[in-house]
């Protein structure tokens, strides 16, 4: 199969991962028995997943002109992600995340995104969007996401929004109608709609003009709206070692599936399998499977 080209736009970060027996429950001193560092960020990790799964990923992002930025760019390049439009900004700190992971693979993430990052996206080469087979945007850089999603719609390129929790619901309300597929986290969907029940939230999101909603629910699988009817795809049953990055891997794999022309159910199965396999391995990126491993997993676990 011809290698498909996927454009990712959004946040690329550097993660510091601490492994503990149990997650912190309040103020105090806690001790980690394992530690690692790796690149992170929704769009950054999605682009790595695409590359690992056989796609050709290109990332448009902003990072600081600092040591963390050097590590972010170097690791992305090692994974085969192209960085032709990544802005290195002087006087701005690269995005960082502290991640605490417990023995069951659940985690707490504390992210820092420097408020000095400029929001403008007028430097992006939007004329190139039509050359891609699909596009993916996260919500961490709203202006960049909006510009790319609008350009993708105009060019007829299928697009995916990673609809995670945002600084404000207005960001999700602006971006969700622009994407061909708005794939929310449970928290992101609740923020947009005010509905804590995922099914109710999905119906509420689907009533908004132009919104084609999905919601990922971790080990409870995912739901989506199909012509007004809620449909479900169950999660694969695996023993989780680390759920860090699983949602980002899901989004990247789904964008690749769309680029390869998969039908929705097939694409969700592909994305769910990639996310499940990632959860069986420690590390936000080291645990991302390659295409051979995913194909073998899906063959062992037929629908």
What is the number of E strands? 13
Spatial order of the strands forming the largest sheet: 5-4-1-8-9-10-11-12-13
Compute the average pLDDT.
94
Per CATH, what is the topology?
UDP-N-acetylmuramoyl-L-alanine:D-glutamate ligase
List the total number of helices: 9
DSSP helix fraction: 25-40%
Q: CATH H level: which superfamily?
A: Ribokinase
Task: Briefly note the structural class of the backbone.
Answer: alpha/beta
Radius of gyration: 18 Å
Weakly predicted, low-confidence segments: none
What's the helix-strand series? EEEHEHEEEEHEHEHHEEEHHH
Structure description:
By secondary structure, the protein is α/β, with parallel strands linked by helices. It has one domain: Ribokinase (UDP-N-acetylmuramoyl-L-alanine:D-glutamate ligase, 3-Layer(aba) Sandwich). The protein contains 9 helices and 13 strands. The protein has a 9-stranded mixed β-sheet, with helices on both faces. Strand 12 and strand 13 form a beta hairpin. Helix 4 crosses helix 5 and helix 7 runs antiparallel to helix 8. The longest helix has 16 residues. The protein starts with a strand and ends with a helix.
Describe this structure in a few short sentences:
The protein has 9 helices and 13 strands. The protein is of the alpha/beta class. It has one domain (5-26, 34-300): Ribokinase (UDP-N-acetylmuramoyl-L-alanine:D-glutamate ligase, 3-Layer(aba) Sandwich).
Spell out the key features of this protein.
9-stranded mixed beta sheet, alpha/beta, 303 residues, 4-stranded mixed beta sheet, UDP-N-acetylmuramoyl-L-alanine:D-glutamate ligase
């Amino acid at each position: 199969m011809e290698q498909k080209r996927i454009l990712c736009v959004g946040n690329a970060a550097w993660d510091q991962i601490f492994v503990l027996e149990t997650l912190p429950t309040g103020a105090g001193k806690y001790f980690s028995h394992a530690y690692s560092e790796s690149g992170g960020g929704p769009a950054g990790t999605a682009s790595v997943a695409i590359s690992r799964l056989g796609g050709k990923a290109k990332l448009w992002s902003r990072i600081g002109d600092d040591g963390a930025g050097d590590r972010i760019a170097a690791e992305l390049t090692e994974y085969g992600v192209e960085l032709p439009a990544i802005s290195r900004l002087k006087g701005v700190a690269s995005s960082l995340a502290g991640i605490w992971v417990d023995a069951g693979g659940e985690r707490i993430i504390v992210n820092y995104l420097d408020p000095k990052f400029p929001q403008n996206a007028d430097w992006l080469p939007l004329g190139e969007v039509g050359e891609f087979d699909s596009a993916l945007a996260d919500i961490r850089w709203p202006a960049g996401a909006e510009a790319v999603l609008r350009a993708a719609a105009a060019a007829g390129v299928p697009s995916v929004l990673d609809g995670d929790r945002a600084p404000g619901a207005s960001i999700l309300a602006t971006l969700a109608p622009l994407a061909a597929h708005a794939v929310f986290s449970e928290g992101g969907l609740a923020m947009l709609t005010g509905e804590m029940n995922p099914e109710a939230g999905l119906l509420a999101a689907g009533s908004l003009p132009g919104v084609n909603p999905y919601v990922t629910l971790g080990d409870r699988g995912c739901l989506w709206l199909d012509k007004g009817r809620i449909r479900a795809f169950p999660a694969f049953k695996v023993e989780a070692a680390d759920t860090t990055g699983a949602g980002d891997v899901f989004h990247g794999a789904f964008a690749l599936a769309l680029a390869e022309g998969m039908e929705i159910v097939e694409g969700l199965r592909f994305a769910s399998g990639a996310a499940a396999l990632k959860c069986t391995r420690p590390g936000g990126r080291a645990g991302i499977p390659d295409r051979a491993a995913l194909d073998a997993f899906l063959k062992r676990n037929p629908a």
